[in-house]
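Reviewer 2 asked us to include a model.

Predict the structure of this chain.
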Amino acid sequence: MITFPRVVRAEWTKLAALRSTWIVLATVIVLTVGVAGAAGHHARATRLGDAFLGVDVFSLLLGVFGIMMITGEYGSGLIRATFTAVPGRVPVLAAKAVVLLLVALPVMAVTTAGALMADRLLGGTPLPDTGVLRATAGATAAPIGLALLGLGLGALVRHTAAAITLYVLSMLVLPALLAAALPDRLGEHVVRFVPVAAAQGMYAVGNPFRMLAPGPAALVLLAWVAAALTAGGVMLWRRDP
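Predicted model (structure tokens):
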């Protein structure tokens, strides 16, 4: 009998069996902590925002990781066997999302805590108490949201290169285009609602670029994730593998 816990277990087995999974996650931890330590060392005056400089970059890496969780199966042809075992298809995407969340959450918690500690130790001064827990929680959750967004885009597009291109365009190119094309105040307001800006607003300190406050930013990112996963789920259900 097919049950959702069994589908989750199967997806976990597939993900854990890939060496690339652990290479990517280890890279995220090492590089994010390394960037934080380097920022603290060179600044010699620790600012809370310095600890999370690497999160901006490596959020994109986790997004690609989310994309390849499903497009990799399309590329290898394994998706046909997966959908034969789980004819409903949508539970497969939901199970992948659960597994991605369960894997990424502890990884990002360790990463942000390590980045905070490295920035503090190498910066030579104590971090301010104000906003530490909030910013750390936001820096932990935001990359996970972008990874889930990548998973949804992967399900929607199915092709790895096309999905990554779409992801990068929406994360990096779209905000720049909107800011350039729209009048100053309107562009500034609209750009805050694109996924990457919402994610950054979850852990921004001092709000230097007039980002959304952490609470609204989290809701905006959650809406983008829900939209991407819903669209991906609908397309999985409607078309052949």
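The chain has a mean pLDDT of 85. Residues 113 and 136 are 7 Å apart (CA to CA). We have added this to the supplementary material.
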